[in-house]
Amino acid sequence: MVSILHGIAASSGIALGKAYRLVEPDLSFTKNNITDIDSEVSRFHASVDAAKADLSIIREKAAKDLGEDKAAIFDAHLLVLSDPELLSTIEDKVKSESVNAEFALNETANMFITMFEQMENEYMKERAADIKDVTKRVLAHLLGVKIPNPGLIAEEVIIVAEDLTPSDTAQLNKQFVKGFTTDIGGRTSHSAIMARSMEIPAVVGAKTATETIENGDFIIVDGVNGQVHINPTAEVVNTYKEESKKLELQKAEWALLKDEATFTSDGKQVELASNIGTPQDVDGVLANGGEGVGLYRTEFLYMERDQLPSEEEQYEAYKTVLERMEGKPVVVRTLDIGGDKHLPYLNMPEEMNPFLGFRAIRLCLEEQDIFRTQLRALLRASVHGNLKIMFPMIATLGEFRDAKAVLVEERQKLEQAGIAVAEKIELGIMVEIPSTAVLADQFAKEVDFFSIGTNDLIQYTMAADRMNERVSYLYQPYNPSILRLVKMVIDAAHKEGKWAGMCGEMAGDEIAIPLLIGLGLDEFSMSASSILRARSQIKQLDQSKMASLAEEALQKDTSEQVMELVKQATTL
Fold it and tell me: Model-level pTM?
């Protein structure tokens, strides 16, 4: 059936291809009495063997693409499937109670999971998650149901999912995954950010994508207009193929700007940097002419593993990024876990409102062993490039001072031990809490720089969860209230001779860029795929005219009025 879904254009571009549904399968079953016990036991062992084969393939791919440390979790899963106590208990239940393997597996797995979860030892508690994962895979084989695995995709497809977790997107192979669409999410959800990082088209918040699209349907993801076409006509396909060619020609034009510095038409220079999550992302920064890394999200070092990364692991990751950037600035954000990002091996409390809870710098100041390990790794790596350190979620001057004091202590310990540390490391904060923006004039006396995190600043200012589609209309980067906060931060930095950057998604927004140029923003950090387009746009802007435009925008009443003003004043 031909139809069109409307969603949010999360990552620009056009993808045409076959749909691959990444949807949790139905693993429901009923308890049955079995008469052929031997056949049922054989069926169970065959499913265990099939699950082992799956995991071996996944483990091999993870080791190749992500490294041996990331692959280690699958070794743990394979050990569970070779545990004679678990397997014999399931087999005995089938024999003694004459029940189907699905029921015996589920009952036994739940017993072991409950037992492990109640243990005091953290390592043993973590084994509960391993048992859940592997028994779910065995159950799927027993039921003849396929568990979709993004890491095993080996043909060109477009992913269709309710949502994509950071671990899902980390497994996607750009060679085969040409785009994706999700039921939920917004421009600032992790799936959208990862799509831009991978430079693949994406439409999120399409609401009924998983209900409407079947495996194998031919679909078009229009990441420019936020549309998903399902089984389109030949005419629509040809139109989109032409549009895709035009986009490629436009990209080729932008590519000519790769090695240029970024100047406005009247000679004002700004810096275009990129947001990254892993050392591998540096490839995209360099390929797109990035002048630095404006945000290195270090939490990806901590995710998708069963224990904290060591100081040495972190040092190697930071060193790699600093060396590859060859003296260009690299702003590293310290651990920002909490909100929608959790670590399975950290016993974090369940919270009513995690975005406003125990996260980021709040967690680091309480869990100082974790914080100090990261800071030591960063300080040791600082001699390999131009490192700048940034603390996230700072709400008070006291928090900044406390975090800085820990950093100073670790520097002193390293220097006393004869370990080299760079002489000058700029220390800044993310401005993502309105109280910090309002008090920016006081913060500016003590920090070396500001980086405005608009994704959170907007949701906190507007009191609207950016992941909630029902209030997504309140995610308004051009609202005069947001622009006034941004101006306060930039003005406060400049008054003290400091620089102000922006690492939220607003930094790469075509409507926001003229306003930010007018407000005097010094550094724009965005997805690598947005850099060349932004450089092309900035070359056409007159900074003095944009200053007048921004001043006028600050006096408007609504976000819509600001958008209209920018469109009339520029060629958008």
Answer: 0.74
